[in-house]
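ok trying again, last paste got cut off:
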Amino acid sequence: MRGSYPRGMAITERARRLDTTLCAIAPSVKVLSRLSWPESVITEFLHSWRRGEPHIPEVSYSLSGLPSDAQRDLERIRDEAAPDDPVEGYLKATADSYAKAVELVSRAGTPAFLELSRALYGDPYARLPGTHLTHFEAAQQLLDITAPWAAACRGEEQLSCMTAEHVRAEIQSRLDPFFSDHPINVVIDPRLTSKAAAAARRIRIRGKSSYTEADIDQLLEHEAFVHAATALNGKLQPIQAFGLAAPRTTATQEGLATIAELITGSMDLSRLRRLALRIIAVKHVIEGADFVEVFRYFLRAGQSEDESARSAARVFRGGDPHGRIAFTKDVVYLHGLIGVHTFLRRAIFDSRIELIPRLFAGRVTLGDVLRLDSAFEEGDLLPGRYITHWAADARRLAAHLSFSLILNRIKLENVDLETILKN
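nice, full thing came through this time. structure:
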């Protein structure tokens, strides 16, 4: 989908000034790169495990290099922005989110880190939107429901046999036609701890890893057509902050990206279960489990030794490998998935189709899409310039979601195969 971006006529001069200041500070506020463990920690742990003498990793967090006065400057932007102006309200919330992120990083390894992580990303005990279930309960139900299928499909899983170089070339070839006017480069990053990371003009994939064909489809839909697209669309807006990956947008971003995997069929059962396993692992850490115990939990769930070590390291980033202090970010995947899916269904139900492409207008939350309604209606902000196929075609998406509304009214506990046979 293509469009031209006019300069917003109703955007205040104060908003433009605050936007310039915020965009100058935000890139220095790095959360994941500062909290992630060195690759050597994973390697050393696996060596100890294979020797039969597993040890809890020793990790230290350095505060050197944190942006000086960043938190104060971000709080100044937050306090100056007017909450009743839609665009300034967005800047206000975004600046506050980054200020909390600075404090989060500065408290790595301390009990305060857990509380700040909960404030930014939530925790396993919070309730999911529109349900009576907590994140933990929903994750456990998901694992219970999929357990028989996981056992049946275990022998059918693809072998990881594709190199990072091959995956990089394949993804690049599929991106170029889509991002035709604003090319995005795919590069290999041997230091990357996650499988991939996306920004407005670059996607990084982890080196020294093997990939499957399913990984390519998943990375395209998740990293490229959602994360990279929303960041790029945000940079093309009159207010550049819409391209920033503020922590407050994480749940919606990951929910949108995970929905993309489900709708396009690029998410397999193993990945869906991994999302649930990580939420339960976060709960285990908060309740005292150490790194070795969490590693064994992932191992019992069917993950490989390497994947189990990396999964355990995810939930201990910025925390204490001895337990009690966890990084709760992985809670946002299920929270975001259910939240975005519910939002899309409600938009269809209320005949508000125009809300869907606005999710791609930049790095926004579900609440932002509604609060910025007047800015979109007046043309100060536009829906995303680059919108993936399933979201751009409202008729197909409406058909998919409308059918799901009917299916959700069927209670499987009231139906068995014999009942279906009689019909």
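cool. The first helix runs from residue 13 to 25. The mean pLDDT is 91.
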